[in-house]
Design a protein that fits this description.
247 residues, alpha+beta, 6-stranded antiparallel beta sheet, 26% helix
């Protein structure tokens, strides 16, 4: 019987006072708090399984509120995410929900969040993102990014930027979003890394690739987190590693 094993953790890092990241794995959410150890959850394939991270926009109010709102909404909508159109509609709904919440509570005005994730179906995997949180495919022995960074072009010699060109919320007035969504075949042994930029900014992709070649599941999640901490832990670190197995 095929299954999806998901190893995940979330941590504030070394420089931030609190964690503005949130995480959803099926019906389970972790909102703006920390895990002391990687969490492992296993699901039989069948109903759509959503796994996603949301990174509250720093420097603006209530990023943790926006990220928590989005993952909770995705947890509710998860069983209905059976195709690309459903995922796009869900992300557009999340965007409206962030703006609606900010309109009801003036101190939340301008809050926003990125989001990135997968939906595991019986025969395919949907990947999606808005913003610069990432989904990377480690299925073929070489790590490759399958999400699309919503960031302006980088100047020569620069690897990262804190600027983003779209997010869920993040402005005073409503702005629609254009989610990035794609479909890939489901393969036993397939692995997907879903993470906020607190992992990918300080840790180069070749380092993540090497760690994923050496480790799997919770140990891989721990070693990637430790690499971000060893690199200074400048931001909140949230990651989920999805592995497709067969019993």
């Amino acid at each position: 019987m095929p299954y999806a094993a998901v190893s995940a953790l979330s941590h504030a890092g070394l420089l931030r006072e609190h964690n503005e990241d949130s995480l959803v794995i099926g019906p389970w959410t972790l909102c703006a708090t920390e895990t002391r150890n990687p969490q492992l959850l296993v699901f039989p394939l069948g109903a759509p399984l959503v796994v996603a991270v949301a990174d509250g926009i720093g420097g603006q109010p209530a990023g943790e509120v926006a990220s928590a709102l989005v993952v909770r909404r995705l947890a509710e909508l998860g069983p209905s995410l059976d195709g690309e159109d459903a995922v796009r509609e869900a992300l557009e709904s999340c965007n409206r929900a962030v703006y609606d919440a900010a309109e009801r509570t003036p101190e939340l005005a301008g809050m926003g969040t990125t989001v990135a994730g997968t939906v595991v179906l019986e025969e395919s995997v949907l990947t999606f993102n808005v913003g610069d949180s990432r989904v990377l495919d480690a299925s073929d022995g070489a790590l490759r990014q399958v999400s699309v960074d919503d960031s302006p072009p980088l100047p020569p010699g620069r690897r990262t930027t804190s600027l983003i060109t779209q997010a869920l919320g993040g402005a005073r007035d409503f702005h629609p979003v254009t989610p990035h969504v794609r479909t890939s075949p489901l393969t036993v042994g397939g692995r997907y890394l879903i993470c906020t930029d607190g992992l990918t900014d300080p840790v180069p992709e070749d380092v993540l690739d090497a760690l994923l070649r050496e480790h799997d599941d919770g140990r891989a999640a721990f070693e990637m987190w430790r690499a971000a901490i060893d690199a200074g832990g400048p931001d909140n670190i949230t990651l989920a590693l999805v592995r497709i197995g067969e019993a």
